Structures are given as C-alpha cells and as structure tokens.
Amino acid sequence: MSVTFWGVRGSTPVFGRDYLTFGGSTMCLELAASESRVIVDAGSGVQELGRLLLSQGVLNAHILLTHFHVDHIVGLMAFAPLYRPGFSLTIHAPVLSLGPPEPLLESFFKPPYFPVSPAEAGASFTIRSFRPGESFAVSGMAIKTHELTHPGGACGYRVSHGGRSIAVVIDHEHAPGRPGKALVDFCSSADLVLYDAHWDEASDYAPHRGWGHSTWQAGLRLLHAAGARRLGCVHHAPQATDAELLRRETDLRRLHSDSFFAREGETVRLGLEPNTVT
C-alpha cells in the first residue's frame, strides 16, 4: 500500500514562501494498492490529483469524505473528472448530526455558492451513504469506519489491503488522558496512523479546546496505545509555517524516529523495510 499527500492543510488553503516545504492545499489523500485506489477527502488538493487521473486515462474514482466542512469538499468544484463525460465518480459519505449527505452536497453545488450541479457537469455522479461504524469494500480495499469527535461530527477510516492497513483519524479532538478504547481498537496494529495534528500542546492547543482538532502529542499517545507502527501528522493549521512544522517534527522524531509531518506531494509506501518516502 501507499499514500500520496495531495493536500495536508486544514481550515483554509495557504500560499507563499512560508509554506513551500509542507504545502498549502487542504486535505486530500490518495491510498493505493496494486490497481486499487481510494481518495480520502476532496479539499483543494484534489484538483491536481484530478488532472493526473485524466492524463492516465482513469475512468472512475471513489472519494471517502470524512465530513462536510468546506476545507474538505471545496476541491470538488474544480475536480476535472467531474466534467468529463464517461467518467464515474462515487462519493462515500457518512450520515452525521446534520443528516444524510445528499442534501448537504447538493446545497454546495447550487447558487449562491456554485453555478453547476454534479448532474449538469458531465460525469456519472453517485453518493453512497453509511453510518460511522459500518464496514464496506471499495475497489478491492477493505474499509472500516469510526465516529470521531468534531463539531457536527466526522468519520475516521481504516483502509486495508494485502495485510497492510492505514488508519485516517482527521478532524478529531482527543479527550484528556489516555485515548479511548474504541479508537485504540480501531487503530490497533496499523502500519500507519494519519492523525489530526492541527495544534501543539506546548504552544497553541489550550486556547483552542473544543475546536475539534488534536495534537501530535495525542497522536503519539494513540500510536503507542494501539501498538501501531508509524504516525503521520496531517491537517496542519493554516498559520503553522514551514519553520514551525519543522520544529514540531523534530520534537516528534526525538520520541519516535519513524514518524513524520506530512508534506504535500510526497508518497509513503508501506510493505518495504523500512517504509520509504518518495
């Protein structure tokens, strides 16, 4: 398995010389194994991935949405395959506190927010809903889901293939103390845990309790409790510059040398010893 980071930022895209190392696009992950592929979230980073899919002649895609905040769906309006007749796009989306996903997504693709609906765009567009806690399969990959702690709700994913697994826990706020048993079980023995590290407990988390985001320190506690192999920190705060993220990554690696802060454009490949980054 592999994961490619097309967007690793949270809340809003950012640009400029202070964001060249880690990138400024909002969340989009591509998880692949053999000929299988799933996309997690459609933040602004999904735009570049969409162009690549068309250049490769790909005719279908599956996107797993964690929730419906704008930074996680804004890239859909510029996802080039959506406008290609003959392309098939399936959105897998959780039923959260605001109800079924269909009206939530439909309200985004209409005035005053956007002039073109998915039905008018050209591709075949399907929404499949589920409740967090359910399991299903997509493109030959096994998907488990888990409810997360976030204003309005959010859903975590564990994607497995060929004996390898990646747990995606973003837009989640940890509880004080040890991680909860249900989340520990969800991440148990995962090869890679991709975790919401929006804040740092040493500097900026305290004033933002209740905002729905976590810290790399909480991610590391989860990693150890779950017996998982490696932590990848994602959903970087828009105000966190390259210098700040490098400092946080240095602190993380002092405690767990295989873990890292994700960089836009990089690919992490599992199943190689050691895991490699390209």
Structural overview:
The chain has 278 residues and is an alpha/beta fold. 19% of the residues lie in helices and 28% in strands. It has helices at 46-55, 101-108, 118-121, 181-187, 216-226, 242-255, and strands at 2-7, 28-33, 36-40, 60-64, 88-94, 124-130, 135-138, 141-148, 154-161, 164-169, 192-196, 231-234, 260-261, 267-269, 276-277. Strands 6-5-4-3-2-1-14-15 form an 8-stranded mixed sheet.
How far apart are the first and last residues' alpha carbons, in Å?
Answer: 14 Å
User: What structural category characterises the helix and strand content?
Assistant: alpha/beta
Biggest sheet, in brief?
8 strands, mixed
Query: What is the chain-wise order of helices and strands?
Result: EEEHEEHHEEEEEHEHEHEEE
Mean of pLDDT: 95
User: Helix amount, in percent?
Assistant: 10-25%
Please tally the β strands and state the result: 15
**What is Rg?**
18 Å
Task: Give the tags.
alpha/beta; 8-stranded mixed β-sheet; 7-stranded mixed β-sheet; 6 helices
Q: Short summary of the structure?
A:
The protein is of the alpha/beta class. The chain contains 6 helices and 15 strands.
